[in-house]
Amino acid sequence: MTAELVRGQNHPLSEVRLEIRISAGTPIVAAATIGDDRGTVRGTEWVAHPGAPVLPGVEVPRQAAADHRLAVDLGAVPQAAHRVSVLLALPTTGAGPACFSAVAAPFVAVTGLDGTELVSYTITDLDAESAVVALELYRRQGSWKVRAIGQGYAGGLTALLTDQGLSEAGRLAAAVDETVARGLARSVAAPPQRTAEGDRSRHTPAPALGPDPGATAAAPGATGHVPSQPTSPHAGQTSGAPGQPAPRPPYPDHAASEPSPEGSGASPSAAPQPPASTGGPIDYSHPRRRPAAPPPPPPTAPPAQPGQPAQPVAGDATGWSMDERLYNQVWGMFEDLARTTAAYRSAVDFADSRREKELDQVLSDPRGRIGGQGDAAREAARAKHAQLVDRAREALDRDLAQLTAESEVVEPALPAAYARWDNPVWHGYRVPMENPMAVRLGDLHLPESPSLRIPMLVRLPLERGLWIDSGRSASSDDFGTDEDALRRLAMDTAVAHAARLLAVHPPGEFGVHVVDPAGAGAQSLLPLVRAGVLASPPANGAAGVADVLSRLTQRVDLVQMAVRGGAPDALPPGFDTSDQLLIVHDFPHGFDDRAVTRLRYLADEGPTVGVHLMMVADREDAASYGPLLDPLWRALLRLTPVPDDHLADPWVGHAWTYEPPLVPPGSQVLHQVLAQVAAGRRDWNR
């Protein structure tokens, strides 16, 4: 039986040798790209197009045509390949249509070599786009899946290839256009006529699970903290219907690839923005973690029983180390949860709109408003709605069960930098000898699956500071937290973050400073003070604040001058080159205009030279300064001390509920870890 997909939905593939059939009703160009585990195309040699139609495991037609056949052998693609994306584009030459809104909805089918149709997808809701990622075949836990994408680009093939990380996108798109215009090779023959029994027209009624064609993608409104949906980070890219995935998803540590805080101005990966690609392969490894030998192959899951999902395995992802593999695996879990939830919401929206349409039709007919005929029609509409929603929920529950099983395997295997404070790994903690590649700043979950937590991992060194919000919110009201308790909880959260950052860095590689003008955070700071892990005692009063800010500002100036002058060795003898974190408590109370200006300078210029900010403040209090502090607020990643759904990813528009990584009540793990950090620092200083 053929699986009819909707945008964002995926389906397992039972075969690796496939044929992809495309029917568009008008001549289009078909191409394919091979991407790594982040979806990045490493170069033009990973693009199959009419001018170079053959890649290992992929072959595309040599000319524009209304019907296409693409040959795919997933067993022959490069080992580094994790995704094969099928691309469609309208020719830019000739008198053909300029955008997909002027043509019939393209129909794509994935078949076996015997012609059995495995998956089909009708690409709807296209408007001004002239290029589209139709679907992708991707590797997941040792097996392959297909996902309906339908991501359109008004900027054409150039914008599409640029979004996939290809630096030579413009030149390659021009070469494709030239090849198509000249007709350098024969046209691909149209597929054989389907029999009446096996015909599956592109113009069939809407599938049982599908988006409402009139719906639009928008970030769910969540409390008072969710910003308006950020615009697409890629020029020419259009936002699709609900559940439409972007080519490279945002994960919380990458700004647009990470969930974006209010006012961040960020783009996914992150969400948390994925770092801008230069067209070459993305290097996931930390600069100080360069193994000389190639990495061993990742662990593989035991073979699954026929019809059963593969058993999850911790570290089942690519990477140079186990930490890197786990990081990439968590990224994949975030991506899968976002997409399956988007598909579910899209299907429910479709079911709702279909029910309303059918009920409107009943009411529009005077003969059906009363009597048994009208009641029967209304009951049929409601029954069909319930059936569609139940099918959507069944698909969601199946995906959630698989992700939950994977989470139960991955969570215990996480290293200390990625682990919750209640993870047993902390009881065997030892001071590390090298810097980590990422750190956990909390958990993320969605209302459809509140028990499934995805670690919020942020790459190190931090590219932006943190704002721990100590102000009132709807979430804090739900928890019955008064203002004083909320401020204390915000400072406890900041201390937990700082302790983790100290614990995951080698001795001498990370220092923490504290500015607490009124001394109101003394109780929360006791674990750091008693352990003796602060670079200096907490600064109190106006003089103390000015001294700390002056020293850190001077440090930024010196390093910037040395780097820009090409003389990093010219720094003063004994200069501390380790990363520095400044915790600012109870801002803006006790800060004059000069101190505020220095904080803004540190927020803007500090991260590039290893100086990072962690503000503990109430946004409403800071607003009393007017627009002066808006750049500071927007430059930082906003976190909360209580679970709150203020993080919104610009990829599919989900409002993710963020939970801070607090130490379990009564646990002594924080004191034990800080004691070892202090001991490691003393040994290092000897």
- CATH homology group of the domain at 463-565 and 576-669: P-loop containing nucleotide triphosphate hydrolases
Q: Roughly what fraction of the amino acids lie in strands?
A: 15-25%
- The counted number of beta strands is 21
Q: Oligomer, anyone?
A: single chain
- Percent helix among the residues? 25-40%
Rounded to the nearest angstrom, the distance between the terminal CA atoms is 71 Å
> Biggest β-sheet, characterized?
12 strands, mixed
Parts with pLDDT < 50 across at least 5 consecutive residues? 184-296
Find the structural class using helix and strand composition.
alpha+beta
Q: Categorize the overall geometry.
A: globular
H/I helix tally? 12
Provide an overview of this structure.
By secondary structure, the protein is α+β, with helices and mostly antiparallel strands. Among the domains are: 3-182, Sandwich (Lipoxygenase-1), CATH 2.60.60; 322-413; 463-565 and 576-669, P-loop containing nucleotide triphosphate hydrolases (Rossmann fold, 3-Layer(aba) Sandwich). It is 30% helix and 19% strand. The chain is built from 12 helices and 21 strands. The chain has helices at 156-163, 169-182, 322-364, 371-413, 474-478, 483-504, 522-531, 541-564, 593-605, 619-622, 630-635, 669-685; strands at 3-5, 10-12, 17-35, 47-48, 54-55, 58-59, 65-73, 83-89, 107-112, 117-122, 131-140, 143-153, 438-445, 454-459, 466-469, 510-515, 579-587, 611-617, 637-639, 644-648, 655-659. Strands 1, 2, 3, 4, 5, 6, 7, 8, 9, 10, 11 and 12 form a 12-stranded mixed sheet that branches. Helix 3 packs antiparallel against helix 4, helix 6 (483-504) runs parallel beside helix 7 (522-531) and helix 8 runs parallel beside helix 9 (593-605). The longest helix has 43 residues, at 322-364. Mean pLDDT is 78; it is low at 184-296.
